[in-house]
Amino acid sequence: MGDEQHTPNGGDHFNFATAADSVRARLLAARAMDAPMFPDEAAELPEPAPDQIWRARWEMTALAVIIITNPDDDHVRVAAVTFDPDLADSTATVTPASGTTIGTPAVLWLDAAHTIPLATLDAHLGNIRTPSPERTLVPDELLHYQSSPTKRTNDGVMRASVIDDLKALTFATWVPETGGNITQLLANVKNNQVSEALDLSPADALQIKRGQRPLQPDEATKLAPLTGHSAEELVAAASKLPPAVIHLFNTPAVRARITKYANATGADETTTRRECAYGAYAAAARATGRTDDNGLDQWRQRINQYLDTHLPQAE
Predict the structure, then answer these.
(1) Same domain membership, residue 195 and residue 163
(2) How much helix, strand and coil, in percent to the nearest 5, is found in the chain?
(3) DSSP, res 75
(4) What is the pLDDT of residue 303?
(5) Which of 94, 160, 194, 305 could potentially form a cystine with 205 if both were Cys, beta carbons 3.0 to 4.6 Å apart?
(6) Within 13 Å of residue 130, how many CA atoms lie on the same side as its CB?
(7) 196 and 285: one domain?
(8) Quick check: is 4 in a domain?
(9) Which domain, by its residues, includes 104?
(10) Are residues 98 and 149 in the same domain?
(11) pTM, whole model, 2 decimals?
């Protein structure tokens, strides 16, 4: 039959390349996740947990996912979710609309699960009802682009695409690699230059030079021209973020605030998250002189206070 094949409902012929283009177009539509799938922005985000459907988004990649296991070490095991049953293939599992809280059928690609950073979760879309009324497609449902139900010409197209997106999400990160020695990077900068550039007391400036106090991103920006190093390099060398701070800035609740501000101002979301994390850490160190004894609840309070002060309220 060459590059043409009968459709199941007509007898018309078409080229495989055209069919692939059609599938890609519908794939994009299936991922659009327009209203009413998005919940009220004012609603409090739940703690990520199994059977929840979230949007995972990082840079140019966005994909709906279902959480399979509880988060561990700021990562979570997920499978891709799409919302067009017509694009499901023989590897997919279909949950009807009655089996979700979204009000639309969900196609679960459970055999292609990946572990992705918790930081990629940004919108809770709904849940799969428990017990989940899932079912795999039976052969007589696989009727795309052919008269025989045994194989679809687009079988695997969607699956390959969502796997690519899941793989891309696994590399998401916002925490810079720590490296360098702030004392060495500031070796040629005099203490009074640090004090004047940052409007600090000589004692505070000396603490920075000795690596005894973390740098805020705006402080690093002011020091960078004096050192020949980038602001990001200075921040990373001056301080390593505590695990509790990294964890809280990985959570969807904090990301929601960062995203809202970034969308309203045009700021880069990843950069804003990084700067706020280092800023909150440095502010806490400056206020208390100690940060290593802060518990998770204390850090949550300090981070919220910092965000309240430093992120303008986006309308």
Answers:
(1) no
(2) 45, 15, 40
(3) E
(4) 92
(5) 194
(6) 8
(7) yes
(8) no
(9) 16-170
(10) yes
(11) 0.73
Residue 237: burial class (beta carbons within 10 Å; 0-12, 13-18, 19+): buried
Amino acid letter, residue 249 = F
Assess if residue 241 is contained within a domain. yes
Would you say 86 and 116 are in contact if contact means Cβ atoms under 8 Å apart?
Answer: no
Neighbours of 257 (CB within 10 A): 19
Chain mean position to CA 41: 17
Four-point Cα dihedral 184, 186, 191, 192, nearest 10: 160
Which strands form 121-127's sheet, in the order they lie side by side? 121-127, 52-58, 61-67, 75-82, 106-117, 93-95, 135-136
Q: Is the pLDDT reported for residue 247 higher than 90?
A: yes
Per-residue pLDDT of 156-207, as tens digits, reads: 778 888 899 999 999 999 987 766 788 889 989 999 999 999 998 888 888 8
Rounded CA gap, 29 and 277, in Å?
A: 35
Q: Are residues 49 and 147 in the same domain?
A: yes
Task: Say how many C-beta atoms besides its own lie within 10 A of residue 215's C-beta.
Answer: 26
CB 114 within 8 Å of CB 95: no
Of 168, 166, 227, nearest in space to 198 by CA: 227
- Which residues is 117 bridged to in the sheet? 75
**Residue 296, in any domain of the structure:** yes
Whether residues 20 and 138 share a domain: the answer is yes
